[in-house]
Specification:
By secondary structure, the protein is of the alpha+beta class. The chain contains four helices and twelve strands; from the N terminus they run ααββββββββαββββα. It has one domain: Glucose Permease (Domain IIA). The strands form three sheets. Strands 4, 6, 7, 8, 9, 11 and 12 form a seven-stranded antiparallel sheet that branches. Strands 1-5-10 form a three-stranded antiparallel sheet, with no helix packed on it. The model has no long low-confidence stretch (mean pLDDT 90). Bound molecules: zinc ion. The site of zinc ion has 4 residues, from loops.
Length: 200
């Protein structure tokens, strides 16, 4: 009896210790990121891991991901959500934020404001897909705006500055965006029903 009690208590200690040391590599709240849609609908999009790259005169860290794409390329919502902000600022230019109602918020910055070259004559009509209002529902993959270089990106190559925040804090999402890009390419290059043609 005493021996079996000892075995049981040793087992309990082992189970307890394992539960303490168990550190899930993938926390539950990150599941959201595994489902995101690539934010630009253009096959010539390109990006690299520029998270926390030094910007400006070196005293500013880049807290997002820049996706370069031809000016005017469609920007889509990475997931279902509600429009949180549609605005303009001298730094961000035209930008839009979507609240995914689960702690996650996606922010799309430097939207297009040009009709020709860098004329800034397009205004918000060139930037946003429609006259979005706070609280409007948008679906995953819905077109929300267009790639440009408004704000302090004027004169740089057109790109979407994508920022994804969790509970208000910008997150390093490079590997998830890369996965969404690979999914995007796969769907573009091998749309449904053409897959079978490739094996002949
Ligand atoms: Zn950026």
């Amino acid at each position: 009896m005493r021996k079996s009690n000892r075995i049981i208590s040793i087992l309990l200690i082992i189970i307890f210790a394992t539960s303490l040391s168990h550190n899930p590599a993938h926390a539950k709240h990150l599941d959201f990121l595994t489902e995101i849609k690539f934010p630009v609908d253009h096959i010539k999009s390109h990006f690299y891991d520029d998270w926390k790259e030094k910007r400006g005169s070196g005293n500013r860290l880049h807290l997002g991901l820049d996706v370069r794409a031809p000016k005017g390329s469609k920007i889509v919502s990475i997931a279902d959500g509600e429009i949180n902000t549609v605005s303009y600022s001298p730094l961000s230019g035209y930008y839009i934020a979507i609240d995914h109602m689960n702690g996650w918020l996606s922010l799309y910055v430097h939207l297009d404001d040009d009709i020709i070259g860098n004329d800034n004559a397009g205004g918000k009509k060139a930037a946003f897909a429609k006259d979005f209002k706070k609280g409007d529902f948008v679906r995953r993959g819905e077109v929300i705006g267009f790639v440009g270089n408004s704000g302090n990106a004027e004169g740089t190559v057109p790109h979407l500055h994508l920022e994804i925040k969790y509970l208000g804090e910008p997150q390093d999402v490079y590997k998830y965006v890369l996965q969404s890009w690979e999914n995007y390419l796969k769907a573009k290059l091998f749309p449904k029903n053409t897959m079978s043609l490739l094996i002949y």
